[in-house]
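Data card: per-record layout.
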Amino acid sequence: MKKIQFFLAAIVAVVMTSCVNFKTEATVDVKVLDPDGKEVGAGTVVYKFTDNGLGEGTTLYKDNASGSAKTNTASTAHFDLKSPDDFTPSDIAGLDVREENTFFFCTYDAEGTRNGFIALTVKTGDKKTVTLKMEKPQQD
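The structure for this 140-residue chain is written out next.
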């Protein structure tokens, strides 16, 4: 009897997985500028955070990030926001589901202090480009 239950559970899991379309739901390109407004070039790491109801407080530590990307030679970091990590899958059992989430994109200095921040609301299907300008280091 237990073998039959296990077999049925496995079939249900396979069927449910085949009903959900895991894919890129939206894209965001983050153009990074230094404090003087100049492009930073390649190699700057931009961290992505999903707003889970706690607001931007989660961005104080880059270890809380849900993803990261390095800037290319055009000073742009590209993010593919995918289901199920960033959005609920938009195609569930043939139904079209639309969702809107807030994401935070941040840069950090060598000591791990946040020196650039931008919040962005993204809907499934969006292709957005934003500019993140780093802040000047604070003088003690």
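Known properties of this structure: The beta strands are 24-33, 45-50, 67-70, 76-82, 91-92, 95-96, 100-108, 114-123, 127-133. The chain has one helix and nine strands.

See the next section for split statistics.
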